[in-house]
Structures are given as C-alpha cells and as structure tokens.
Amino acid sequence: MQKSASRSGQRSGSFRKSFAITTIYVTHDQEEALTLSDRIAVVDHGKLQQLGTPRDLYERPENPFVADFIGINNLIAGEVREIGSVGRSMKVETKAGPLLCFCYKQFKPGDRCLISVRPETATISHRAQPLRGGMGSAEM
Questions:
Q1: Where does 27-108 have alpha helices with state H?
Q2: Using CA atoms, how far apart are residues 58 and 133, in angstroms rounded to an integer?
Q3: Cβ atoms 58, 67 nearer than 8 A
Q4: 29-85: pLDDT as tens digits
Q5: Residues 140, 111: contact at Cβ < 8 Å?
Q6: Is the dihedral of CA 66, 70, 74, 79 positive or negative?
Q7: Which domains are delineated in the chain?
Q8: Contact at 8 Å (CB) between 118 and 71?
Q9: CA-to-CA distance for 32 and 9, rounded, in angstroms?
Q10: Taking the CB of residue 55, how many other CB atoms lie within 10 A of it?
C-alpha cells in the first residue's frame, strides 16, 4: 500500500509539473507532503507555523512544533556558551554536557535555545568537531 501511494504521488507530482499548474494539496501525511511538494505550509490550530521547501522545513525548523511534525528528531534545551569562529557554530551547555552545533539564527552567549538533532546527522565523538553540512539547528 505504501509503495503504491508513493508511486501515485510521484505520478501526480510529475503530472502537475508537466502542466505547470499551481496545486494546493491538504494532507496530514508528512511523507506525502515531503514527496509531492515544492513548498509546504505547516499549520497548527489554524496558525501558520512555517512556510518553506521540504528541505528548509526538515533542516531548519522554525519551532519545536515544525521540528516534531516533519520527522524524527531530538530537542535538547541548553544555554549558549560560545559563538564559534567556524561558520555559524556555537557551543551549547546542556544537561547531557556541552554540544557543538550550527545555527541559522543569531545568538549570543547566555541565550537559551533548543537544539534540534536529527538521528542521521548526529555524530558522537570524544573530541568535538564542527561537521560539514550542519549538525542540527538551534532556535530561541
């Protein structure tokens, strides 16, 4: 059933693109939304939480609701200790210890934040090193 739904979604996405028409499709199925859409609007209780490409929503969720809605992740609360010199990296103190992460918003030492860690992007190491392509995202 899942494979046929996915194939059907791919066909309808190709059909829509070949005729260059705008389509609004409402679904509660995250996989379907991520597969079919060029842009996704995530709505909670009638309020727009975030509008963006599937990649933007997955890699840079605006808030915990979007992070949880789009897929499996871990939200870790912490406080910014240092802003790194490498790209947009920062060191965050958490209950689990210090974490090095990349952020897409401006932070300063002392700011409270949430780190969103996707299992496929996390690395456990004895020596903290910035990852290429980003480890997670942080938000206030």
A1: 30-36, 54-59, 64-70
A2: 13
A3: no
A4: 888 888 888 899 999 999 999 999 998 888 888 888 998 888 777 889 999 999 887
A5: yes
A6: negative
A7: 2-56 (no CATH), 74-139 (2.40.50.140)
A8: yes
A9: 7
A10: 9
